[in-house]
Each structure stands twice: as structure tokens, then as C-alpha cells.
Amino acid sequence: MNIKNLIENNKYLEARKEIIKLNSVDIANFLEDDVNVDTMLILFRLLPKDMAADVFSYMSIDMQKYIIQSITDKEIKSIVDELFLDDAVDLLEEMPANIVKGVLKNTSKGRRDLINQFLNYEEYSAGSIMTIEFVNLRKEMTIKDALEYIKKVGLDKQTINTCYVIDKYRKLEGIISIRKLILNDENTLIKDIMKENYVYINTYDDQEYVASQFKKYDLTSMPVVDKEHRLVGIITIDDIVDIIDQENTEDFQKMAAMEPSENEYLKTGVFKLAKHRIIWLLILMISATFTGAIIRRFENTLQSVVILASFIPMLMDTGGNAGSQSSTLVIRGIALGEIELKDMLKVVWKEFRVSIIAGFTLAVVNFFRIYYIEKVQFLVAVTVCLSLFFTVVLAKMVGGMLPIIAKKLKLDPAIMASPLITTIVDAVALTVYFSLATFLLGI
Fold this sequence. Notes:
The protein is built from 23 helices and six strands. By secondary structure, it is mostly helical. The model has no long low-confidence stretch (mean pLDDT about 85). Homodimer.
């Protein structure tokens, strides 16, 4: 009999025996997706104390809020005390003030002081995402002493794979892996085998920079120090995975001309979704009036050679697509640390060469299509194809440069993505098109 059948037959204790065999992530998913909220609460309360806290940390904010509001103060204290400190801080950052107050009221003074200290760090800084559940050692210890100490305190730590060596003032002096501790002689001193050349970050470093350091040095954890180089916490790879996911989501939203939102799509109201989109849509709509102004300016040209109007969509679409290709690659390169501000000339030169090849190929193919197949006049075909060539060249140059310029101005390069690039390129493409038509066709 599966878990759902046991629940339907009100055999909750038997269901509990089956549920606790699952991974904490799977339990959280089951409670959120496969049972109603009343049954979820019953099953959650039946979980062992340490497992309940672990399952709780994997639930959505809405479900966490519902549980906090539905259980007793004693149960709240039990959950918060069992959570790793960084998970507890993440929980409280998302909760309304009245719930935060209630949760903090039901925690021990020492833990409450630590949580308040973490909540005071600037959002998205290293200090706001670090944890203090790490193992610290002294360099005067022998390996035997160190291993005994780890056995004593390690159970409650988030990781013991890397241990941190500090002095009496808590200043970080080195790091050492559990592997080195296990493989070396037990009488060896920590100071003789610890690594003194290590990577660290400051409490006020931005989380995006922290993620880039993890990627650069291929780390699973990293120490966080204050201005006096005192060890105040560590950041682990599970937090970095969440940050990378969050940053990528934010970039995608900005690249699609939307205000970033941390809420899940299906759990976000339609008015909130509309609000996040309308501002940029208005900006882009108003900026598109430049395109209309250019068309009105060359109205006589269009009236003289009406067929020119039929090629406008093709030019604008191709220009927008060409610019979007370049901007997407450059934005991603900046995000991954592959492209820096000093590389602007390299990017421009590379995009220029790419645009020459792409523009020439498109122009030649298009000439054969409209001149030989559609039987358009020779000069009109030349005008359209030359315009297409210059549009692709300009679009790729603009698409490559704007994200780097945005970075230099301390703006998010992601805002210089497809919608904005397309709007700019449209205006440029039409100006080139009608100017060439006026010159070549003698209008």
C-alpha cells in the first residue's frame, strides 16, 4: 500500500514510517504537491524533530509561512533551533514583520542575537548568506586533538570537509581539509600541514562576486572574514547554487524587458505580473515613436517607390535579431567573467568581422531572392541589400558595445538586451534604408 492510500485510510502512523524513509527534499515535495494543507500539517507534525527542520528548509516560502502560523510556539522554537543559521536567516528575510517577531520571541537569546546580526547585513552580501556552522581549529593542535574535536562538535556543523585555523583573536590563519587530517600522522601539528595560501571573501562582497569566486577556484566552501580578517562565517556550495539560479533568473527577466521578481510564476498574481512588465513595455512603446518619426520624414520616398515599404519588416527583424545575438553572447560573457571592460575594443573588432561575413552572406542571398525570383527592379534590389548589409553590421556593433557600456556605467548589462537593442536598431536600420533609397534612386 503506497503512502497516499495509507493517508486516505487514516493510517497516519504507518504513512509516517514510509515517509521518513524518503529523502528530505522528496518529503517536502510530497507534502506540498501530493496532499492538501490540513493533511500536510498532520504529517509534518509527525516527523522526527531533526527531520522536520530539514524538510521545512526545502519548502516554499508560502508553505513555511502557513506552517509557522499554524503550529505552537514550542514547535516553532524546535524548528528554528534545528535549522542551520543561514537557513533560519533566509526564512526570516522572507517573512512579514509580525511573523519574524513571533519566531524570534521563541528562540534562545544567543541564537536570536546571531540571527539579528545576520539580518543587519546588506541584502545579497556575503554576510547575509554565510553560515557560522563550521569547524575552527588552532594551529598548535595535533592531528589527533583536531580529529577528537571534530568528532565532538562536527555533528552540528554544516560541513567538516574543510576546517579553518584561527588564532586567539579569531583571525584566519589557514585552512585544512579533512582528507589531510585523516591521511597524516596523528602527532603532526596543524600548523605544519595547513594551507596558508587560501581564497577568502569579505562580509560586504556582493553575492554575484562570491559565486564567480567559487566558479573560478572550483571550491565547495569559502571563509568569510570581516575588515580585521577575523573569521565570521563560511559560504557553502549549496548556497552558491541557489545564488546562480537566482542571478540567472534575474538576468533572463531583465533581458526580456521585465522588472525582476523572486516569486514563482504560478504563485504570482496577474496584477503583479502585469506591473513588472508594463513599465518596460511603456518605455519601449514610447521609444518606438522614433521609428514612426523616421518613416514620416521619408514619406515622399515611400510614395515615390511604394515597394520599399514591403521590405521594412524584413530589415527591422533581421537587424533586431542580429543585435540580439551579439548582446546575448556579450552579456553572458560578462556574467561569466569572460569579458571585462578593458575588452571592449576586442569585442568591437570581433563583432565587426562577424558582421561583415554575416551581412555579406544575407545581402547576397537576399539579392538573388528579390531580383531573380520576385523580379524587383535592379536599383531597388541593390538598395534593399546594401541597407541589409549595413543594418547587420551596425546591429552587431551596437549589440556588442551596449552591454559593456552599461557595465562601465555600473548598470546591469542584462538591461541592454533584445527589446532595447531592437528598438535602437530599428531606428538605425530605417535611417540607413531611406537615406540609401533617396541617394541611389534619386528620389
